[in-house]
Amino acid sequence: MVDMRPNSKAVDNLRAVGLRPTRQRLALARLLFAQGNQHVTAESLYDRTQVAGIKVSLATVYNTLHQFTDAGLLRQVMIDSSRSYFDTNVEDHHHFYFEDTGEIADIPSEHTLTQINAVAPAILPAGMELSRVDIVVRLRRAE
User: Fold this and answer.
1) So where are the chain's domains?
2) What is the tens place of the pLDDT at every residue in 60-101?
3) What pLDDT score does 125 carry?
4) 91-143, what's its fold?
5) pTM score above 0.70
6) What is the per-residue pLDDT for 1?
7) Pick from 133, 3, 4, 28: which is nearest to 88 by CA?
8) Mapping DSSP to helix (H, G, I), strand (E, B) and coil, where does residue 82 land?
9) For 19-27, which contacts have Cβ atoms below 8 Å and span 24 or more sequence positions?
10) Domain spanning 1-90: which CATH class is it, in words?
């Protein structure tokens, strides 16, 4: 069962990004941020709310994930038009996508970011600046 008592740090964090600390947002924030960095789908987070006894709809989970993303608390990782993950690690980094299991994992960033940042400015169209690079490396078991 998730502790439902108000957490002053969570309340302050939500208010700092312009979000009202509702019961549902606080409960979802506890599930998302209490266990370190993780990747979730709306459905997997909704399943966790059910196990934890948190009364919230799937639509509320979707809305909250998008609100947290818009506020900079999460990073959305699009795998394809029908699958996206929400990442609690908002630092620049890239992902492995395991096609066999549907899971994603962080790629250690010490090498990839340096290489990409060195090449990207040379290939940008005139008048454009680099906002962010998202790379998803798709993997499957070798046959």
Assistant:
1) 1-90, 91-143
2) 999 999 999 999 999 999 998 889 999 999 988 889 999 999
3) 84
4) Dna Ligase; domain 1 (3.30.1490)
5) yes
6) 44
7) 28
8) coil
9) 19/67, 19/68, 19/71, 24/54, 24/56, 24/60, 24/64, 25/64, 25/67, 27/2, 27/52, 27/54, 27/56
10) mainly alpha
